[in-house]
# Entry
Amino acid sequence: MEREGWPEPGDLLVCTVTQVVDFGAFVTLDEYPGKQGLIHISEVASGWIKYIRYHVREGQKIVCKVLSVDRSRHHIDLSLKDVNEHQRREKIQEWKADQKAWKWLQMSYDGRPDDLKRVTDSLITAFNGLYLAFEETSLSGAEALADAGLSEDDVLTIEKLAKDNVKIPSVEISGFVDLTSPAPDGVEIIKKALKQAKRVKDKNVALDITYVGAPRYRIHVKAPDYKLAESVLKKAAQSAVKHIEQHGGEGTFHREA
# Structure
C-alpha cells in the first residue's frame, strides 16, 4: 500500500534499513515510495551503543516514530527507541493487513491503474487505512462508504471484496431476566416486555431471547466486542424490567457467569 504526501511527526512507520553507518541508519519508508529517513545513533536505542549493528542491520524491517519532517530538504528524522514492543507489533499487524487489502484491490482493478489509484486514495483518505475500510464495510455494508467519494460500481466492488475476505471476530454473552406479573393479562404483559427488549439492538449485534422456565428468560447477545455486547445486554434487560414494572409486575436481571 502506498501513501501520497509526507508523514507527520508522531506517525509510526514501517521502514526498511538500507544503510548502517557510524552515526546512525538510513531507511526507506515502505508506505511512502521514494522517501527516506535517518535514525540518528542516539535514537536507535536507549543508553550507550557500542556497536550499532547489534541493533539494526541492512534489509531489516523496523517500525520507527517520526520525529520531524523538513520537506524543503527532503529530510525525515526518525526514532527507533521511542517505539515500544506493543506499538511495534500493532503497527506491523496493521501494515500486513493493509498489504493484503492492497492485493485485493490490485486483483479487482487489474489493468486499470488510474481507477486503482483513485479508489485507493479515496479509501485511505476516508479511513486512514485500506484494511480498516474493508473491515468497516464488512460490518456496516455500503453505508460505511457513503463519505468515501466512490462510484456505485466501486462501492459494489468494495462490498464484495469485504464480504469475501474479511471475517469480523465476535463475542457472545448471555444474561437472564426473571419476569412475573399478577395481572389477569400477565402473559401478554410479559410478551410485550420481551418485545421491548428485542428492540434494543445495534446494526452490528445479534440479540436472541429464549424461554428457560418460569419466570426466567435468557437474553443472548453476539457482537464484535465485549463492550458493545455488555451495553446491548444491559439495555435489553432494563427495557424488559422497566415495562413489566410499569404494569404492576416484577423483574430482575442476572448476568450469566
